[in-house]
Request: fold
Amino acid sequence: MHRVVIASVVALVLATSSWAVAQATPDLSGTWRVDPSAGDAARLIFPTDLVITQSPTDLTVERSSVRQGAFSAVYKLDGSKVSVEAPDGITETAEASFDGGNLVIASRRSFSSPAGDVVLDLREVWTVEGDVLTIERTETQFGEARTGSAVYEKSDAVVIQ
Reply:
């Protein structure tokens, strides 16, 4: 009976530790460059390059692209709302947190246009496996949702302009 209890405890510890490893928060730090042959980045606009710095509480992301100006954001990983750098006339707020091994960023952009006020809700799910980062994005505007994804490879030689 004593051996059965010990064996059960050992099995429980091993199962719990492997679950904890599977749920570990990934480190997204590094320089990432989009792989144009992967994902369906042409459906939505994604940055070409990302430089990410991660601490236990914050994620700093510098983004650049040939299609849009460079900008950066500092997300609090506890899900609290932050203001995100945006071009003049655009207000953006975002919330970020880990859901298991995925980073989820929900943001809202708003601006005025000749047609009236515009609100764009974005939801991104970031998944990293080794040297590959996949971002799946859903953009919702005027009740209509569009989705797309981009795949990034870790690189040592990307320069944010």
Q: What stands out?
A: The chain has one helix and ten strands. Residues 4 and 85 are 59 Å apart (CA to CA). The helical segments are 2-22.
